[in-house]
Amino acid sequence: MPDPAAPTQEWLDQVAEAIVDPERPIIDPHHHLWTARDGKRLGFGDYLLEQFWADTGSGHNIVKTVFLECGASYRQDGPEQLKPVGETEFVAAIAAQSAGGGPGRPEIAGIVGHADLTLGEAVTEVLEAHEVAAGGLFRGIRHSGPRDPYPEALTISRPGHEGLYAREDFREGVRTLGHHGYTYETWNYHHQILDLRDLAAVAPETTIILDHFGTPLGVGPYAGRREAIFESWREDISALTELPNVYAKLGGLAMPDNGFGWHGDPRPPTSDEFVAAQSPYYLYAIECFGPERCMFESNFPVDKLSLSYPVLWNGLKKIAAPFSEDEKAAMFYRTAARVYRL
User: Fold this and answer.
1) 202, 159, 210: which is closest to 184 by C-alpha?
2) How far apart are CA 194 and CA 160, in angstroms?
3) Which of 17-31, 36-50, 116-130, 252-266 has the lowest mean pLDDT?
4) 40 by DSSP, 3-state: which?
5) Structure confidence at residue 69 as a pLDDT band (50, 70, 90)
6) What is the DSSP letter of 47?
7) Within 10 A of 204 (CB to CB), how many other CB atoms are there?
8) Who's near 342: CB < 8 A, 6+ residues apart?
9) Would you call 294 helix, strand, or coil by DSSP?
10) In 3D, which of 169, 72, 70, 77 has the Cα closest to residue 116?
């Protein structure tokens, strides 16, 4: 599938809305940063502190954030297993610039890096290097497992190894994270959710975070099957939530591979259109996990391919409207603060 064009500000600005509940404090627990070289896969230029603060400063009260690994600025030499530590060094320097930023200029308060967890217990060396590089901000590892038989149909494909979650060396790596007090975070596709459940069952000591609802696909061979995929997704999510060490990031459904097609439309969706299309996923995940195990995320700038930062958070607040004040506080702030020790 051809890469989508990066969104222009002119395209995004076609939809301008008043900010919903502007005073509500928010932790955005999932965003990326990269240089133009790292962002070229999706047609982006630099997405650094200036660009990120332009998004977070658009009206919502974003007070802290967590960076998620995205393969940016790896070390170019040295031991292979330590190359991802370069990304943590890169982000830690930006996080230092963000300290004390003020309204609309949130502090980057946590870093989730990457390590090859098939190293098993030997991954400890990499964790120690991340800890040093992060200057106190290192919170966990994302070693994603997306694997699909039709990668040519997908826009955002970082193929995982076949059967990754079932490998004993990988499982030992996930358990090692828990032993050291770090989280394990992953991104996979909807048909891999039960594989993640099996992994979570054998690593009860590790807090496991599922990104992007497990990415229900809607392109290529999955196009035109939204209802059937939704029903199987519901069953698998329900099974996954039986494991109390699993938490959910609620967001990331505006990626092109989810099949909503907004990135190719003449104008982006309004928050009401976003809610109408995607609220069933959010409401079901909240019903199953409960607010204390859910956190709203932006997944920016990737979801920026489909809609703007202020419209996205307006939509999330509208989805959360039926919940109590305490439940909203959990999903917008408290769960992320607890899980990432912010």
Assistant:
1) 210
2) 16
3) 36-50
4) helix
5) very high
6) B
7) 13
8) 27, 64, 66, 109, 110, 336
9) strand
10) 169
Which of helix, strand or coil describes residue 49? helix
Query: Which residue is it, tokens 């999903």?
Result: 331
**SS in 3 state form for 9-38?**
HHHHCCCCCCCCCCCCEEEEEEECCECHHH
Give residue for tokens 């991802």: 84
The SS3 call for residue 77 is coil
Express each pLDDT in 111-124 by its tens digit.
999 999 999 999 99
Q: Which of 39-43, 85-89, 115-119, 245-249 has the lowest mean pLDDT?
A: 39-43
| Residues with Cβ within 8 Å of residue 36, at least 6 apart in sequence | 44, 45, 46
Share of the chain above pLDDT 70, in %: 98
102 class by beta-carbon count within 10 Å (0-12 exposed, 13-18 middle, 19+ buried):
exposed
pLDDT tens digits along 136-172? 999 999 999 999 988 888 988 777 788 999 999 999 9
Q: How far is CA 273 from CA 27, 256, 278, 316, in A?
A: 24, 16, 9, 12
Please tell me the distance from the alpha carbon of residue 185 to that of residue 200, in angstroms, as a whole number.
11
Structure tokens at 303: 């979801």
Among residues 186, 148, 180, 161, the alpha carbon closest in space to that of 30 is found at 186
End-to-end CA distance of the chain: 39
Q: Are 67 and 103 in contact (CB under 8 A)?
A: no
Residue listed under structure tokens 């996930």: 174
Does the reported pTM lie above 0.85? yes
Percent of the chain with pLDDT over 90: 89
Q: Which residue has the tokens 């035109």?
A: 224
C-alpha 180/C-alpha 201 separation (Å) is 18
Distances (CA, A) of 91 to 39, 45, 136: 15, 17, 12
